[in-house]
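Quick one: examine the sequence and fold tokens given here and explain what the tokens say about the fold. Here goes:
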Amino acid sequence: MKQLYFRDCRLYSPIETRERQTNKMPRTKKKSGGRAAKDRTHDYIDDGTHEEAEDEDLPSDEAGRRKIKKNYEELLGIRIDKLKGRVLNREKINKSIDGLYFICYECRKICHNLDEGWIEEAGTLNNYCGACAKAKGIRSSAA
């Protein structure tokens, strides 16, 4: 155990304390929490190289939804029949608009409510795209 001598227990004046603190290493700037969300790439499924020419004439958000739908189709594969009529994912587009990916109960396609439309049958709670709901004569339960 280290013995303390009287000179080690010395009290310093405020001026001496500030001088001792300035002799330390300079502080570095705090780093940000990481890369921005736009910089991160989460292309686990889609490499984004195919069918880009087809999506060039579409707005960027619609082209992005088309890619996500293709990714869902590849990911789910034969399980689409089992999951028909179900909601896959909900997203906030902005404060007032919600997006919804779902599998149409009739045509078994992966749809987005802003692209194909979305109608939920009141009795069974099955989800239909706008074209299938119109063909079957189903009206939205919100009215």
Observations:
- The two ends are 82 Å apart (CA to CA).
- DSSP finds four helices and five strands in the chain.
